[in-house]
Amino acid sequence: MIDPKKLSDYPITKRWPAQNPDVIQLYSYPTPNGVKVSIALEEMGLPYEAHKVTLSDADVKSEEFLSLNPNNKIPAIIDPVGPDGDPIGLFETGAILLYLSDKTGKFIGATERDRAKIIQWLMFQMGGIGPMFGQLGFFVKFKGAEIEDPRPRERYIAETKRLLNVLDGVLADRDWIAGDYSIADIAIAPWLRPIGGIYEATDLVDFDSYTNVVDYLKRFMDRPAVQKGINIPSRD
């Protein structure tokens, strides 16, 4: 039993109180970044409690949320049983995924070589796919679409195609990006969904022409843990 006083040292728990302080506390919203962590928790079988933190300034720029993540972005977690037995709070999805894999020994490979390859592709998502696909959405679907200058839009369409081509080539001879299913897939695949979803950019980037990527996304979405985690926390 975790001493609830230890968890209450985190100011975020005053705004989003823990019903069960014994389990991992997830502060998130079902965006491509947010669902990386809920999917990982489901895949790893770790008990957790999800708190909906909307993207509004009232939530992500609140004093309580900033106390856990000064970068004011979801998701963030508190693990009540950290490496030294005391709670630990973390933000940044790459850091969280690595932490959870190290905690459980799951989805991080069987050898140091495997681990290095998985981290390589995790960094590829964090440095490339996430930022570039996010800019695609901004300039195609959201506020950036109002900008008359076509160059930003063309830049991110072209970069999205380039990154999809990288993925498609690697996936030509494997089911998962680094060999066995791993946190690299949990990081990458959720960012493929918005292209044909909220971004409505399937035709713009010729998404269906990347057949290995299309099949990869379907394999990912067919996983029971993914089907559950993709909607946690609920938008309602």
Automatic annotation (TrEMBL):
GO terms for molecular function: transferase activity. Residues 111-236 form the GST C-terminal domain. It comes from the Bacteria. Residues 21-108 form the GST N-terminal domain. SUPFAM superfamilies: GST C-terminal domain-like, Thioredoxin-like. Pfam families: GST_C, GST_N. Gene3D superfamilies: 1.20.1050.10, Glutaredoxin. Keywords: Transferase. CDD domains: GST_C_Ure2p_like (cd03178), GST_N_Ure2p_like (cd03048). Belongs to the GST superfamily. This is Glutathione S-transferase. It comes from Cohaesibacter marisflavi. The lineage of its organism: Bacteria, Pseudomonadati, Pseudomonadota, Alphaproteobacteria, Hyphomicrobiales.
